[in-house]
């Protein structure tokens, strides 16, 4: 494939990681087009960016436009923001799995997905169990390449207020020196670093499934 022949597909471009990733993809000359799907317009666009705005409760309507080469999924919320466990599962599990399945059926070869530190489908923790289920569903699809990012607490300028993140961020400023050795994976990670790891994963030569743990980001 020659330079500027690739099309990226991005879900979650208005979020903490997705907004950073959009800027990186826009600057990458290997992508001639970036298809952005979401409920609202991202902070910036360019001639390369094609925006599809609408309610994602019925992703089937997106099928004809889910074509390209690299799928990036940066979808995620909290139970508090979602309002219920059912809505949380819809956003963090059902929607990513559905759009990934449709994209793969349309010939998309690569899926790069943000999950969470500790994601495990057998966990008794609802959040981690849901993230683990999402990983299972996407890695079971016949993509040539899948990369799962498992970041710890994300740092960055989030548009919505999350009290837990504020408390954790302030605690890290004081006790950050403790997060070394085996505890390194629990260090908060910058959203820009996660976006950069996703961008790198899409452009490297590996095939199959790769799990990128937080300490590797």
Automatic annotation (TrEMBL):
Top-level lineage group: Bacteria
Pfam families: NAD_binding_10
InterPro entries: NAD(P)-bd_dom (IPR016040), NAD(P)-bd_dom_sf (IPR036291)
Coiled-coil portions: none
Stretches assigned to the NAD(P)-binding domain: 12-135
PANTHER family attached to this UniProt entry: OXIDOREDUCTASE HTATIP2
Name of the protein: NAD(P)H-binding
Source species: Williamwhitmania taraxaci
């Amino acid at each position: 494939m020659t330079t500027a022949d690739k099309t990226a597909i991005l879900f979650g471009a208005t979020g903490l990681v997705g907004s950073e990733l959009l800027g990186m993809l826009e600057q990458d000359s290997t992508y001639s087009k970036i298809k952005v799907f979401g409920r609202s317009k991202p902070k910036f666009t360019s001639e390369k960016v094609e925006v599809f705005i609408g309610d994602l409760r019925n992703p089937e309507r997106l099928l004809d436009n889910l074509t390209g080469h690299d799928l990036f999924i940066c979808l995620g919320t909290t139970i508090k923001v979602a309002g219920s466990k059912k809505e949380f599962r819809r956003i963090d599990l059902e929607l990513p799995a559905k759009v990934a399945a449709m994209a793969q059926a349309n010939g998309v070869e690569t899926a790069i997905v943000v999950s969470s530190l500790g994601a495990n489908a057998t966990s008794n923790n609802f959040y981690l169990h849901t993230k683990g289920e999402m990983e299972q569903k996407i890695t079971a699809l016949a993509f040539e390449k899948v990369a799962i990012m498992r970041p710890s607490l994300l740092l960055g300028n989030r548009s919505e207020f999350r009290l837990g993140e504020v408390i954790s961020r302030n605690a890290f400023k004081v006790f950050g020196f403790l997060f070394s050795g085996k505890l390194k994976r629990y260090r908060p990670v910058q959203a820009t670093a996660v976006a950069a790891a996703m961008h790198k994963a899409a452009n490297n030569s590996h095939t199959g499934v790769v799990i990128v743990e937080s300490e590797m980001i």
